[in-house]
Amino acid sequence: MSIKILVDINLSPQWVDFLNKHGIDAVHWSTIGDHKAKDYVIMQWAKDEGRVVFTHDLDFGTLLALTRADSPSVIQMRTQDVLPQYWGKTIVSTIEQYTSELIKGALIVLDDMTNRVRVLPLK
């Protein structure tokens, strides 16, 4: 099974082309829904569509913790340079390395120092 990504509105649409070129099905929220949509709406759409949320927004991890949801999976970047030319290879390798966790349900947090993977639901 392959991973499908929903790129959050706070990340550049450049990610869609980059991920698609690397064989990862990706769509940008700006082509799907209202750019002012609440995070829970985006989360529900991603869950219904079987997509992993890729974001720079810390609120998605908080939503997962508060709701104890087991999906959708979230990949959260916590860095200033959020363009594919800086983080593209890391994101692709992270998706490849943690495919099974993302399919089952996980929160992956990436920053300049480390990657953290937590299985859902968060406790």
Dominant shape = globular
Class by alpha and beta content? alpha/beta
CATH topology: Rossmann fold
Helix content: 25-40%
* E-strand count: 6
Number of helices in the DSSP assignment: 5
How are the strands ordered across the major sheet? Answer: 2-1-3-4-5-6
Low-confidence stretches: none
Let me know the largest β-sheet: 6 strands, mixed
* CATH architecture name: 3-Layer(aba) Sandwich
Q: Element order, helices and strands?
A: EHEHEHEHHEE
Quick structural overview:
The chain is of the alpha/beta class and 123 residues long. It contains five helices and six strands, in the order βαβαβαβααββ.
Question: Explain this structure to me?
Answer:
It contains 5 helices and 6 strands. The protein has 123 residues and is of the alpha/beta class. The protein has one domain (4-119): 3-Layer(aba) Sandwich (Rossmann fold). A hairpin with a 3-residue loop joins strand 5 (106-111) and strand 6 (115-119).
